[in-house]
Design a protein that fits this description.
With about 200 residues, this protein is an alpha/beta fold. The protein has helices at about 10-20, 40-45, 60-75, 90-95, 120-125, 160-185; strands at about 1-5, 25-35, 50-55, 80-85, 100-105, 130-135, 145-155, 185-190, 195, 200. A seven-stranded mixed sheet has the order 3-2-1-4-5-6-7, sandwiched between helices. Strands 8-9-10 form a three-stranded antiparallel sheet. The longest helix is centred in the C-terminal third of the chain and has 24 residues, at about 160-185. The model has no long low-confidence stretch (mean pLDDT about 95). The chain binds 5-O-phosphono-beta-D-ribofuranosylamine.
């Protein structure tokens, strides 16, 4: 299945997807970043994947940015759009257009800790468990139907950094697996619920 991947930063999730692309039947058509200095762009170039940079600061409105983003995505006619550390809030029009085929990874056990600084917030809240969620993207920030989660135990002396490292290891394992379910046609969104093999998740 053809896919486009959106990033904003280091792209370690992108790397794990690139490394597993063949196995998970994903044909990565392009990587798009809203940040010119995102290290993920280099990872894509090293893998001979076309890249685009769309600097959001050069757009006067969110709508204008999303429209341009959409134009780039549509050139590739992807069956899946993967948000792998893409740190932009998307307009309702954009999320609606790609509803059911856009997936995001979020470093918390949703619905806990939507938004930023999830690791520190989990520590501050005294959580004994933390983790990662993969969900369909809707216009509600980090609020779409949850597809899969991996749990990570919070250790006594954890800092946001140490915790994020262990969560990231789980992210790299979980995301390719979920993408594979989607490319195999086993995963879909129905009535705002994630369905895997005909079963509601
Ligand atoms: C990951 O923790 C992801 O869950 C979050 O942003 C981080 C991106 O890391 N949305 P990377 O760019 O994939 O290394």
């Amino acid at each position: 299945m053809k896919g486009v991947i959106l990033i904003s930063g280091s792209g370690s999730n992108l790397q794990s997807i690139i490394d597993n692309a063949e196995e998970i039947d994903l044909d990565i058509q392009a990587v798009i970043s809203n940040k010119e200095d995102a290290y993920g762009l280099k990872r894509a170039q090293d893998a001979n994947i076309p890249t685009h940079t769309l600097n959001h600061t050069q757009f006067s409105t969110r709508e204008a940015f999303d429209q341009q983003l959409s134009q780039i995505i549509d050139q590739y006619n992807p069956g899946i759009i993967i948000l792998a550390g893409f740190m932009r809030i998307l307009t309702a029009e954009f999320t609606q257009k790609y509803l059911g085929k856009m997936l995001n990874i979020h470093p918390s056990l949703l619905p806990k800790f939507t938004g930023l600084n999830t690791h520190q917030r989990a520590l501050d809240a005294g959580e004994s468990e933390h983790g990662v969620s993969i969900h369909f993207v809707t216009d509600e920030l980090d609020g779409g139907a949850i597809i899969a989660q991996s749990h990570v135990q919070v250790l006594k002396n954890d800092t946001a950094k140490s915790l994020s490292k262990r969560v990231l290891i789980e992210e790299h394992k979980l995301f390719p697996k979920v993408i594979h379910c989607f490319t195999q046609g086993r995963l879909s969104l129905k009535d705002n619920r994630a369905i895997l093999d005909g079963q509601c998740l």
